[in-house]
Automatic annotation (TrEMBL):
Protein name from the UniProt record: (2Fe-2S)-binding protein
Superkingdom field: Bacteria
UniProt cross-references to InterPro entries, sorted A to Z: 2Fe-2S-bd, 2Fe-2S-bd_dom_sf, 2Fe-2S_ferredoxin-like_sf, 2Fe-2S_ferredoxin-type, 2Fe2S_fd_BS, Beta-grasp_dom_sf, Diverse_Oxidoreductases
Keyword Iron-sulfur: yes
UniProt entry keywords in alphabetical sequence: 2Fe-2S, Iron, Iron-sulfur, Metal-binding, Oxidoreductase
Pfam families referenced in this protein's UniProt entry, alphabetically: Fer2, Fer2_2
């Protein structure tokens, strides 16, 4: 049975009609039109669909939209600054050549941001663990890890978040 729910995404409320089986990734992309969240495997393997739900990285392809009605969801569109300039972690990815095709990048950035939000001084091992569920077919990961380390250093120096 279809149901009207309100999803809070990037601090904005969206009223959407969903069935109990509708996946969050599909609602975010198709019903709401926020296509920064990518759908790769659709079965929990690639991490491309990662969003933050109440600050935790979650796979939106394994999450039913109807379970998110009382949660705060952040997608890649929600982390840029209000004036439209990029978030410092996005700048770090660009500066380190950590983006090639870009398909993994939204999920990768959200997984990394969640790590540094809870642990501003992660070890390289902790960074690798945090992004272990995010597959990148292009970069070989070295530049991605460097970008995340650079952002962590910036947070440590300037308190940027
Ligand atoms: S699309 Fe969700 S993990 Fe691959
Ligand atoms: S940049 Fe292409 S999959 Fe990561």
């Amino acid at each position: 049975m279809k149901q009207l729910i309100t999803l809070n995404i990037n601090n904005q409320n969206y009223d959407v009609i969903v069935t109990p089986m509708d996946l969050l990734v599909d609602v975010i992309r198709k019903a709401i039109g926020l296509t920064g969240t990518k759908k790769g495997c659709g079965q929990g393997d690639c991490g491309a669909c990662t969003v933050l739900i109440d600050g935790q990285p979650k796979l939106s392809c394994l999450t039913l939209a109807i379970t998110c009605a009382d949660k705060k969801i952040i997608t890649i569109e929600g982390i840029a600054n209000e004036d439209g300039t990029l978030h410092p972690i996005q700048d770090a990815f660009l500066d380190h050549g950590a983006v090639q095709c870009g398909f993994c990048t939204p999920g990768m950035i959200l997984s990394a941001k969640a790590l540094i939000d809870r642990n501003p001084n992660p070890s390289q091992k902790e960074i690798k663990t945090a992004i272990s569920g995010n597959t990148c077919r292009c970069t070989g990961y070295i530049n991605i890890v460097s970008a995340i380390e650079s952002y962590a250093n910036l947070v440590a120096e300037k308190g940027a978040k």
